[in-house]
C-alpha cells in the first residue's frame, strides 16, 4: 500500500449492509483480520453498538425481552452512533479517517432506515435524524434472498428474523440502493465472496490514500444529486 505522504491522503469509510444472516459480521471480521495482517491501519466498528447503555436496550428489544414502540426503537438506533453524543462521534470518525485509519463498518444508517421503514414508518421521517453523518466511500451490499437467509443456521433467534418482515426490509433496501453501491452475491462460495470484497475494499483504500475528495464531501454518495437520500450529507468545515 502507498505511504501517507499526500496531504490529502486519508482512510476510507467502508460500510457493509444486508439482510439479517447475510454474513455481514463474519465478513467484516475476516476482512479486518486480513487487512491488519497486511499492515493497513484499520478499525472495525459495528452498529448498533450493543456494549453501550442504549445498545443494551436495543439488544434486549431484539431478543424479545422487552417492548418498545417503533419510533422509539428507531431513535435509539440513531443514538447508538456515539455514546458521548453525535458531535463527539462525528469528530472521532473524521479524525480517524484524516489520520489515515480506514473504518470498516458493520451496518450504518441504511440499516436503521430500512428496518424502521419496513415496519411502516415514513421513510423520510426515518432519514431525518441521520442528517450530518459522513457519507461512506464504499457501500457493499451482501445480497441474499430472504428465503435463502431463512435457511441459514441460527435464523429466528431475534425479533426481526422473520421471513415476511425480511422481505419488507429487502424492498426498503432496494429503495435506498443506488448505482454507487457494490453488490456481492453471498450464495457464492465463501472464498469467492471474500476475494470480491477484499478487491473492492483495497481499491477504495488505495484511492483514498491518493487523496480522493474530502471526507463525506458534498460531491460524495449522499449529495443533492442522490435522489434517494438527498438530505444526508456532510459538508467539511472550512
What is the topology?
Layout: E1 13-18, H1 24-37, E2 42-46, H2 53-62, H3 70-79, H4 86-98, E3 102-106, H5 109-118, H6 123-127, E4 138-143, H7 146-150, H8 163-176, E5 182-185, H9 190-209
Parallel strand pairs: 1-3, 1-4, 2-3, 4-5
Helix pairs in contact: 2-3, 3-5, 5-8
Description:
The structure is a single chain. The chain is an alpha/beta fold. It has one domain (13-209): P-loop containing nucleotide triphosphate hydrolases (Rossmann fold). The protein is built from nine helices and five strands; from the N terminus they run βαβαααβααβααβα. It has a five-stranded parallel β-sheet with strand order 2-3-1-4-5, with helices on both faces. Helix 3 (70-79) runs antiparallel to helix 5. The protein is globular and about 50 Å long.
Largest sheet: 5 strands, parallel
What is the helix/strand order?
Answer: EHEHHHEHHEHHEH
- Report how far apart the termini are: 29 Å
Strand % is: 5-15%
* 3D shape: globular
Mean pLDDT, nearest integer? 84
By CATH, the superfamily comes out as: P-loop containing nucleotide triphosphate hydrolases
For this structure, the quaternary state is single chain
- CATH class annotation: Alpha Beta
GO molecular function: ATP binding; dTMP kinase activity; nucleoside diphosphate kinase activity
Pathway: Pyrimidine metabolism; dTTP biosynthesis
Pfam family, one: Thymidylate_kin
Keywords: ATP-binding, Kinase, Nucleotide biosynthesis, Nucleotide-binding, Transferase
